[in-house]
Description:
Layout: E1 2-4, E2 7-17, H1 21-36, E3 44-53, H2 58-69, E4 75-76
Parallel strand pairs: 2-3, 2-4
Antiparallel strand pairs: 1-2
Amino acid sequence: xxxxxxxxxxxxxxxxxxxxxxxxxxxxxxxxxxxxxxxxxxxxxxxxxxxxxxxxxxxxxxxxxxxxxxxxxxxxxxxxxxxxx
Length: 85
C-alpha cells in the first residue's frame, strides 16, 4: 500500500497461465470497475501488473510471485478470482 497526495494506492500482481488470456481480460476489467466505483473506493486506487507463465512449469509461477509480491500485495489468479485484503 502506498500513499500519494492523501490517496491510497494498492498494487496487485497477477500471474496467469499463458493459455488464460481471457482470465487476464476479466481481471483487468474487474480492477477497472473497482477503480471507477466511488462507493467502494473513495480515495483508493488499485494498480496492477500481469505476468504470464508456462502452465507446465509450476516453479516459474513461484519465481514470478516472489519477484512481484514483496513488499506489495500479491494476488494469484487461477480458475476463480478472490481478492482478500
